[in-house]
Amino acid sequence: MSPKWTRSAIGSLGRAPVTAAPAEPARNGHTAGGAISLDLRTAAVLLSLVGATVSIYLSAVELSQGQVPLACANSGLVNCDLVTSSAQSRMGGVPVAFLGVVWFAGMLGLLAFEGRLRLLASPALHLVWTGGGVLMVFYLIYAELFLIGALCVWCTVVHVVVIGLFLLAVARAPATAS
């Protein structure tokens, strides 16, 4: 039997009782008791949604030409305006934020259909996709630090998310016996 948390146990926050997840193993993201467990795939989906949201926001800032404000410091080492308006913020004329939207959409597509299409469930495909993202992140960090001389907080969030997705892809890949 799993323990129950009541209002008295969590204070007067006005929350309904919550059932703690039992110790039985998870099946399809649910425990035997019906509670949802946070597995690696779910964590990857959540991180991808965070990355997509930030990329969409930065794309909206780019497209709006000043109508959507860039909520970030604009002086000193942290200078989002300098980073997002630099030459390095575009690749082949396409804003990097747009590429981020496409990359995260691709990641969400891989995760959404991996149960239906065997190829999309391939650990190698997830490692290649996220590994490519990490290589891009390394270039962008290099550009921020050494070419632009400033950091963008929103960009850093995306960088951390991409590296986190790569680490999740590594953790989700089956261990090979040597």
Descriptive report:
The protein has helices spanning 7-10, 40-64, 80-84, 96-113, 123-148, 153-172; strands at residues 4-5, 18-19, 74-75, 78-79, 90-91, 94-95. It is mainly alpha-helical and 178 residues long. It folds into 2 domains: 1-37, no CATH class; 40-172, de novo design (two linked rop proteins). The protein has a two-stranded antiparallel ribbon with strand order 1-2. A two-stranded antiparallel ribbon has the order 3-4. β5 (90-91) and β6 (94-95) form a beta hairpin. α2 (40-64) packs antiparallel against α4 (96-113).
Task: Summarize this structure briefly.
The protein has 178 residues and is mostly helical. It has two domains: 1-37, no CATH class; 40-172, VKOR domain (de novo design (two linked rop proteins)), CATH 1.20.1440.
CATH top level class name of the largest domain? Mainly Alpha
Overall average pLDDT:
82
| CATH homologous superfamily title of the largest domain | VKOR domain
In DSSP terms (H or I, runs of 4 or more residues), the helix count works out at 6
Pick out the low-confidence regions. 1-31, 33-37
- Quaternary status: single chain
**Do you know the CATH topology of the largest domain?**
de novo design (two linked rop proteins)
Written as H for each helix and E for each strand, in order along the chain, the element string is EHEHEEHEEHHH
Please summarize the sheet with the most strands: 2 strands, antiparallel
Q: What structural class is derived from the secondary structure elements?
A: mainly alpha
Q: Looking at the structure, what is the overall shape?
A: elongated
For the record, give the distance between the C-alpha atoms at the N and C termini, rounded to a whole number. Answer: 41 Å
Strands, total number:
6
Label the CATH architecture of the largest domain.
Up-down Bundle
